[in-house]
Amino acid sequence: MSKVFASLGMSLDGFIAGPNAGPGNPLGHGGLRIHEWVENVASWRERQSLADGESNADDEIVRENFDRAGAYIMGRRMFDEGEQGWPDPPPFRAPVFVLTHSARDPWVRQGGTTFTFVTDGIDSALAQAREAAAGKDVQISGGAHTVRQFLNAGLIDELQIHLAPIVLGKGVRLFEDVSSALIFEAACVSHSPAVTHLTYRILRG
User: Fold this and answer.
1) pLDDT of 1
2) Which residue, 6, 30, 96, 156, has most beta carbons within 10 Å?
């Protein structure tokens, strides 16, 4: 059976974005530092339509996540931050469902990415994403508020944290107001000099 997973970068002090994030300041002040480890891996660069890149253990994790995701779900704020900066084709190469309160026609891009705007909540977005994924996994991409909604609703099977060796001091915390009743079971840990990859299964009580 397909899984629902989230895969997020995080600073050592628990932030997944810096303060004052917005369309002109993606991931907020200092937030891009969380993802410096991924900038040179081959699979990420391929999805950005860039040449070269390193093939290493970090690259294997990024490539596996791209390969397993048959559809994506994200919040409107994440979409607004990325809309101007994503290349065409965007890195997803799969259907993307955007949670929003404002209706908008689907936005068709190259490479198999169509952004569909969902106004009737997370259950509807997940049902549409599962159908579009055609048996592959669904990735909850962010931002923090969107991931929290799916966590608290018990709809995420697996959580990956890519822990960067930096301290931001302030910003957006993933686990703010996340239910303490959730049970996380460590599934995998790996690391490189640039990042530590933590994978947790989320168990239903």
Assistant:
1) 78
2) 96
